[in-house]
Each structure stands twice: as structure tokens, then as C-alpha cells.
Amino acid sequence: MDGRSEDGMQEAWHEDQSIQFDDEERRVLFAALDSFGQYRQAAHYNVTHRRRQNFYALPTSQWQLLAAPPFNLLSSFDRVDDAIDANADIASEILKSGLEAFGLQKEPLDPAMNWKGAAKPSDMDKARSTIRQLYRDWSVEGAAERSKSFEPVLLNLVDLFPVEDKGTIKVLVPGSGLGRLIFEVCNLGFEVEGNEISYHQLMTSHWVLNKVVADQHFNLYPFALTFSNHTNRESQFKCVKIPDVHPGTELDLSSSGMPTHAFQRMSMTAADFVVLYGDEKNHNKFDAVVTVFFLDTAPNVLRYIEVVHNCLKTGGHWINLGPLLWHFEETRGPQVKRESPHQNPAEEEGLSTTRTATERQGKVGIDEPGSVELTNEEVLLLVERMGFKIQSQRLQEETGYTQDPESMLRNLYSVSHWVARKV
Question: pTM of the prediction?
């Protein structure tokens, strides 16, 4: 995965190719691949097959009433099946792209390279939530939600670095998810490096940024697989087109007149943020670090602060925006992790996150013992105690994360938005 993709984006998914064949690393990679491969069958079984069974278990007079107009529940189940197939087409494309990226066969001949059957229920859940997240990051309809998270930090970058050649400014985006933010940063002319730990997110962002052939190419039904809190059936079956833009075309256009092409200014790494960017190789490397919905993924936020301080140049800026839904709260450490409403990139241990054998054996990164949860006020005080000067900070207007705007239940965050300078 090192080097350039066929469309040009630089990638560094594995600096050491041998970790593909470490037993544990291979297991979590295979589990992520298999979860996309099983998406169609698992969704049909869990979402519609079981509902039909429960539906026909009702008294005959009752299910017949609900099967007839104006309810038409059996027809609704058929529509859900159609939506599952559309989403599964996306999952299949992600799987195909991932297999190509890692040099694996669709029908493995070598038992050691057989990725099929590796997924656990938690991996399946992650595949489902990752595909749904495409609504937020890569659809026209998701623009209102993502703009509340992305536009403030993009404006910060432009204001902080009013240079003509923004390609000389190096920006790091930890927890880069499905790649939309690094795409936007690159589109502004900056050199940007994304970092992600989840194979689900990595493979999906790789597919969107490098493999999709045109904008509006796929139908996505983000809310069809859940039956709760819908005001009406049509809102459940909302269909959006993804991606809203073709990344390669947009980056070509934004590169016009630039000293360096966008494909040379955008890259991605796959590793534990603390491990990779806390080393000497990345010391004083970046002019800016942008963390969006990321800070609360830390079991020990002090380690994140230390690592940002390490990789940021003196005088460089840390731009943060997000809530404080501490992902390891109510656990003794990072070995057992609860599900997060805003899609923490670091999942349950060993299920779908990248790890080297050294990281696992040495208990470093998110595997380190201990955890702590702080208030927003305490985080700001801590940032200043650990080598930064807060330049601006505010609690921003409420925003959701992959929320159905028509749902009867919506989780909203008052996110903390601040800018700090390394002193």
C-alpha cells in the first residue's frame, strides 16, 4: 500500500509490509474485509427476514390488517430489501477495492490468506455504520451537518496561513475517517496527511478518494435499515446519491495554477496516532494539526496532547472541534470499548483497528493502561499547561453526527471549538 494509487493520492498504509502477515494484524484486516463481504446476506437476514417472521407470528387478523392499505407493511419490507441491495452494492465495491489494495484474492486459494468468515457481529455493525456515514461525509444532503464541523476549522486554516503557496503548509488530520476533511483541506491548497486506525474507515475512504469513477454514482439508503423514530415511511426510504463530488475531478480543478498537484499534497497513514506521531521521525513536522470529533477517542487525553506537541512545529497551530463523549468511560481501560454515537475510529480491541505486533506486545498507544475523563474547562487548562497557548475558544452551536434530520430522536452536541499555538 505504499506509494501512489492509480489516481495519484499518496498512501502509506503500511510502512512495514510484513505486518500484513502478523497473525493478529491479518485477523483484524480480514474481519473488516469479511464484514463488507457479508453485508448483503447479514442485512437481509437480520433486518427483513426476522421481521417477516415476527410479523407473521401476529394473529392473522392483525397481520392482514397491517399488510393491506394504507399500511402495506409487507411492501415496506420489500422496499427495505431493495435498499439493502443498493447499500450492499457499495459494500461490494469497498470490498473489491480493499482486496486489490492488499493484494488478496476474492476466492482465496491459500488457507492462510482466507479472509472469509473472519467477521464478528461487532465488525458487521461497524460495516453498517461506516456505509451509513457516507451520508454525512459524501452526500449533498449531509452537507448541512458536516459543514458545522468542517467549515469552522477550514476557515481557521485559511486565516492562520494567508500564504500564496499553501502547498508549503503541512497539515495533519488524525482520525480522518472517510477522508472528506482531508479532501477539503487539500482542495484549499494545503499539503495534508490523514491518519486513521480503523480498517473499515481506511478502506472506505480509499474507495471514495481513488476508485469511484463519477459523482452521484451510487444510491445510498442511510436510514432504511432501522425502523424506530420515523415520522413516516418515506423518510425511512430517503435515497441519496454518493459521492456528491468526484474527488479526482475536483482536485484536478483545484490544482490549476498550483506549484504542486493535489495528488502530491494528500496522503494517508494507517496506524495508532500516539505511536506513529509520537516518535522522533515526526518531531516538529507539521504546521497545523486539525482534530475534529477526535479528542474524546483518547483513553488518556494527556498522551494525545503530548503527541500533538511532538509533531507540531514551534509556533504551529492546533485546531480542535468536537464534543467530549469520552469513549473509554465506564471501563477500566481500553480493552473493552462501548459503541459511540459519533463513530469512534478506535473500536473494540482487535476487531477492526490496525496494530503492529510491537504495539500490541508493548501496550502502547490506545492499548496503554489507564484512562481519565475531563471537562472542557479542564482540557483547555491542560492544553495550556502542556506547552500551548489558547488563542480562541467557544462552545459552538449544536450539531449532530450522521443524524436523520426528520427523525423523532436526534443526538446533538454542543461542540468545543478552539485554536491553540505551540509555544
Answer: 0.90
Helical packing angle, 199-210 and 23-37, nearest 10°: 60
Average pLDDT, the chain: 89
Cα separations in angstroms, 299 against 211, 329, 346, 357, 368: 34, 8, 10, 20, 8
Alpha helices in 102-120 (DSSP H): none
**Grid coordinates belonging to 160:** 492562520
Decide if 289 contacts 316 (C-beta within 8 A): yes
Q: Please report the pLDDT score of residue 360 as a whole number.
A: 46
Separation CA 197–CA 182 (nearest Å): 15
C-beta atoms surrounding 378 within 10 Å: 13
Q: What is the pLDDT of residues 144-182, one digit of tens each?
A: 999 999 999 999 999 999 999 999 999 999 999 999 999
Q: Which of 96, 123, 89 is nearest to 220 (CA)?
A: 89
**pLDDT band at residue 24 under the 50/70/90 scheme:** confident
- Secondary-structure percent of the chain, ordered helix, strand, coil, rounded to 5: 45, 15, 40
Instruction: Quote the Cα angle for 146-31-15, to 5°.
Output: 75
Task: Give the pLDDT score at 330.
Answer: 75
DSSP string, 302-331: HHHHHHHHHHEEEEEEEEEEE----TTTTS
- Lookup: cell for 64: 392482514
In this prediction, residues 200-206 reach a mean pLDDT of 98
- Is pLDDT at 114 greater than 50 in this prediction? yes
Exposure string over 53-84, b if 16+ CB within 10 A, otherwise e: eebeeeeeeebeeebeeeeebeebbebbbebb
**For 227, phi and psi rounded to 5 degrees?**
-115, 0
